[in-house]
Structures are given as C-alpha cells and as structure tokens.
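Chapter summary example.
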Amino acid sequence: MQIGEVIENVLSIDEFVKNKEVDLLFTSNPSLRSVVVVRDGKPIGHITRTHFYQKIGTRYGYNLFMGRQNQLIMKDNPLIVESSTPIIEVSTEAMDRRAEDLYDDIIVIKKGLYLGVVSIRELLLKLVETQVAIASFLNPLTSLPGNKLIEEKLEKALQLEKYSLIYFDLDHFKTYNDTYGFNRGDKILLYLTDILNRNITGIEDFLGHIGGDDFVAILPHYEVASICQTIIEEFDAQIIDFYELEDLVQLQVLNRAGKLERFTCTSLSIAVITNEYQQFTSVDHLSDAVTRLKKECKKIYGSCFLINDKKTYLVH
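The structure predicted for these 316 residues follows.
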C-alpha cells in the first residue's frame, strides 16, 4: 500500500498569513491538528496545534508572534514524502524523527505539489493492516512468500528477457519426519531456509516456499550453477547433525512401496529450468517442465542439481 492511498485533506496557507489568523483557524476548528505552509503549491513548513500554542504561550510569545507572519513560528523541516512511497517505508522514516516531532502529521506530495497529510494514528493502523495482509501470503514456518505470491512472480518472470526457475526438494524427508517427528523435521526446513536466504540474495531475486519441503527461486539471469553448487555444499555439510548416528548405520524403514530399506540421510535435489534455449508460454507450461526435471533429479543418489537448457546437465 502506498501512502497516497490514505491521505486526508488538511488546510494549507502561504507563509505570509499572520499568526493571529492561524490562531483563528485553530480556535474555530477544534479538530484541526495542523496546517501546512506552502509556496507556489509546494510545502515548505508545518504548523501543529501543539507547537503553535507552545510558542504563543511563552511569557512574551503572544506579543512577539501574534501580529507577525507564520514563517517565524512554523516548523521548516517536516517529513515530506511522495504519494507513491510504500507505507512501510514511510513508517520507518516517521519513527526516526526527533522526539518532539514524532507525532506530527506526515505531509504528502505528488510531483512536488502538496496533496494532503497522514496522521500517525492512521499510518500505524494502515501499517498493521498491511503487515497482516503480507503475513497472510507468507508461509507461517519460514516466513517466505507462499503459493499466491509465487504464482504472481512466475507470471511476471515469463515477461523477462532472462530468467531461471529453481526448484528445491528434499529427498527422504518423509522418512525423517516418520522417524523423528514433525518438530525436528521443521528444524531441517528452517536449516534449508537459512541456506537459501544466504545464497539467493540478488535485488531482483525471488525466493518462495511452496509448502512442505518444496521451495522455489526465480532469478533474472542464467548464472545459477555456482549458486546451486554452494547451496548443496552448505546443506550437505551439516545435515548429518540432525540425525542420531546409530540410525544411519542400523535403522531400516518402510519405503513408499511398503518394503524395508536402509535408512538414508536427507539430501537435496535442485532442478533448474531457464528460457535460454526454450520459451514458455504459461505458468503451467513452465511448472510442468521443472516438475519433470525434478523427477529426473530425484533418481540420482545424494544431493544433486540438474540444469536443463537442452544442452547442459550438471550433477554434484
């Protein structure tokens, strides 16, 4: 949400309006918190009710200021933001102000011209709404974007000149959950999330959590082999720490076919689809391609990655 969506109209005056007229504005409008001072339509100052009467209420304030122009009493460094600025960004700027300015209205402009103001109360209410809305689209465990945001990002990726879709999937993760329980399984998911967050770091990179042990990344380039290699190396380096060592040696478990097999440590399969040599016409088309490649990847023992660009298959 942008700050311009929640503005309210507040009176503006020029810098030559005298303070006795400002006093009349405040006394005749008890709910008026402030007025904005403009020059040629552009805000240059802010007069809040509290600040105004603090100045006027001093020992010589009434005689010194009341008959003179408001530029002598206005605050000349108010927080001014463009209407297109995200509410989250504005809230950060607002909270960084000096203590005496902390609760002043925020002045909103459009292309430099005064548009309106936003109160701190309204800002905080909308900030909470925004955060709740964002949270509803995030995976509750990993706090990564979920399916709705992933699909929106995939739609946008199809319009890019270059992109790589990376699908991350854990092997033998169901066996781990069946053996140790979901709480310990969640720790592996958070372990993987931390690794992905540290390696998917480009400004335009996107990382999402489809659900369970399935993650996806979308990068606006093709240089992904080294990223996949690093992710696998970091994952394999400490995954064994999540196991009881005797289980890795002695334990047998039922596989999906109902047959006993040797307990196998969880590994990571990474499937990568790019548009370097093949164009995709829809999200479904792209998803089908990466799903097929993921199945091929999971046939390989241990952690691995495959990059399918019709020319290259890379295996760790």
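To summarize the output: The CA atoms of residues 107 and 117 lie 5 Å apart.
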